[in-house]
Amino acid sequence: MGGVMFQAKLMVWLTIIVFVIFGALFVVSPSVMFERVTDTEITSTSGKIDISAMYGGLSIAIGVILAKLVLTHDTLRTAVLAASWIAGLMALTRGLAIAVVHNPNETMWLYFSTELFFTMWGLFILRKLRSRRFYFK
Question: What is the pTM of this model?
Answer without folding.
Answer: 0.88
